[in-house]
Amino acid sequence: AQSVTQLGSHVSVSEGALVLLRCNYSSSVPPYLFWYVQYPNQGLQLLLKYTTGATLVKGINGFEAEFKKSETSFHLTKPSAHMSDAAEYFCAVISGNTPLVFGKGTRLSVIA
Amino acid sequence: GAVVSQHPSRVICKSGTSVKIECRSLDFQATTMFWYRQFPKKSLMLMATSNEGSKATYEQGVEKDKFLINHASLTLSTLTVTSAHPEDSSFYICSAPPPGTNEKLFFGSGTQLSVL
After folding, report:
1. What confidence tier does A107 reach under pLDDT thresholds 50, 70, 90?
2. How many Cα atoms within 13 Å fall on the side-chain side of residue B111?
3. Which of A21, B14, B52, B107 has fewest C-beta within 10 Å?
């Protein structure tokens, strides 16, 4: 069965600094990988996804993630944090026809 | 793109009452919808898979008599929390995959349930 591990339940960065949110997965078949963002009291919004092809994927709001099969990782990055990036971020995986499995989430705080 | 509408966004109810949450696919037909619950520690857990015209499939540990799911049409699935208790307070999110994909990309805006 697939699983997702997000390292760090809370990450704090300064405005303008690099954002790095870590995600590792386990899957017995080639996975589809996703990053979702959840703003307070709102539903989930897709940031980006990897299915096949290019391993570096770009998403909305300047975020990107790189699928590294050898490391079973799909870390989310953004070169320069904005205050508006403060939110909860979820990594998720699908393999085959299984339902989406989420990580426990990482809360990103951005300090002025 | 495909839109999934979830209603209500927030509900407060008394213990013992029932609450119905609706999930609608607005511009596509969804034979399958998924219901997730977000626990206080923030992980999202799949509760059940709603299938149009047939019984829902519940994940292990989810009480089917407490969380009633009805998928009466290709655009509407409902989750009813029956005889709600404070421990049912949570954030519930539905998701409907567009036809021809299992990527399950489209989520409702979620419902925050608070049981007093």
Report:
1. very high
2. 29
3. B14
Residue recorded with tokens 């609608």: B24
Q: In which element (H, E) is residue B54 found?
A: none
Reference A93, options A63, A77, A73; nearest CA is: A73
Phi and psi angles of residue B8, each rounded to the nearest 5 degrees, phi first? -80, 170
CB contact under 8 A, A44 and B112: no
Smallest CA-to-CA distance from A90 within A41, A22, A1, A13 is with A22
Of A41, A44, A94, the CB nearest to B107: A44
Sequence-distant (≥ 6) Cβ neighbours of residue A70 within 8 angstroms: none
Listed in sequence order, the residues at least 6 apart from B33 whose beta carbon sits closer than 8 Å to its beta carbon are: B23, B25, B49, B50, B71, B77, B94, B95, B96
Kind of pairing, strands B19-25 and B10-13?
Answer: unpaired
Helix (H, G, I), strand (E, B) or coil at A96: coil
| A49, A90, A104: residue with CB nearest B41 | A104
Helix, strand and coil in chain A, % to nearest 5 = 10, 55, 35
pLDDT in tens, A57-74: 999 999 999 999 999 999
Mean pLDDT of the A1-5 span: 85
Chain A residues with CB-CB distance to B112 below 8 A = 41
Residue B1: DSSP 8-state: -
